[in-house]
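Much of what follows relies on a compact textual record of a protein's fold. A record is reproduced here so that you can trace the correspondence yourselves:
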Amino acid sequence: MTPLFARIVVLLSGAAILIVETLATRLVAPYVGLTLESTTAVIGVALAGIAGGAALGGRWADVVAPTRVAAGALAVGGLGVLAVQPLVRVLGPAVGPGPVAAVLLVAASTLAPVTALAMVTPAVTRARLHTVDGSGAVIGQLSAAGTLGSLAGTFLTGFVLVALLPVSAILLVTAGACLLLALLTAASRAHAARVGTTAALLAVALVAVPGRCDTDTVHHCARVESDGPSTRVLVLDDLRHSAVDLADPRHLRFAYTQRFADAVDTAFPAGQALDAVHLGGGGFTMPRWLAATRAGSRSVVLEVDRGVVELGRRELGVDAIPGLDVRIADARTALAQLPAASADLVVGDAFGARTVPWHLATAEFVGQVHRVLRPDGVYLLNVIDADPMALVAAEAATLATRFGHVALLVRPDQLAPGGGGNVVLVASDRPLDLGALADRAASRGEPGSVVDDAAVRALATGADVLTDDFAPTDQLLGGSLWSVLRS
């Protein structure tokens, strides 16, 4: 094995490992959610595979011809890469959401190929070591090549490949590169034929096993489902995020959007045009509703995921919404660029799977919301949580540091033991007409769902104020492993 070929093999095997693990978070998200815990599962499984592969590769290279070990590892790794997506699609519906499920699904789908590919570097290194003299340079060069490959795999996948190619195509190309290297490294035609046959079968499975996505965006597996003649539901990963009635934009399907509407119609005179900022676009349900119920309203939507916006334009008629200004940007950085006192309403409806992204939940970010709102403005925040509602309590405590009045819109059963779901926090510097708000909620079948400022602050007693230095939103979410251990 020549020095150049050895470096190429090590570089590409290192790149393949990180391509698989970078894509793993996207592959498992429709089944287990996209949270810090699922990302941690991916990193942990990758490190376990790399450690195991390094130990196995070095051990086997001492008792079997190193080139055979490298070729076999590349073949198994390439075949394993082909099997990742079919395995996720078959096993995903069975494991369900949650951190433990994330570890199991990631391990079942990626541990074998990562372990196999991690065997390549020690095997190639053993093949290149003929004497002790100069061994340090050989080891250093191959180690550097493997690390450079990992860096290339990470950055190319995150910044280039996902934006250009479907996930299945990226996996096919990655697997093809590994299998080609295996064939070039191996001398046996019979071995090459077996690898080629198996690869063809797995490639068919990669395409044949159905997935859940209409669009693989940079952040989500996204699709639009029909739910009636004119209703369309946007599904991001494993969660139904938005419902849109294309025939009647005044009709709001999900309870949390109805609570948004109650708060807006209570806080502002009927028909008054509003300047609104929406943190997260989703299905653009609320900008559409504002345009239909309050003619002349202007909505600035800050949506980080261009793919979600393009899907909305294709299937949800987003471009037809009057007064809409869509900005593809992270809500935190984009909000900081908006003028002070420029909005009557800010609607927080941005999610990473089931939780508010941590950097959009902190006191520092709430300070920016407060800056952008006019003195009588209102901030509406959608939060998903479950018993013991630790995340809602922390969000309430955080909002109370910046706003004079905070209310909570939630059905009583959601606050009962074992309850949960979407709740809406309403924050403003002016008193809210809670009686009128309660009447609106009762009229549509949610009596007793308005929690006043005093009760909200009591709920927040003892909860940590979320800050840029401490904001464990994923862990505070009810039902997470961390919240169970704390309870």
Q: What stands out?
A: The radius of gyration is 26 Å. The chain has a mean pLDDT of 86. The first strand starts at residue 215 and ends at 216. The longest helix spans residues 3-32.
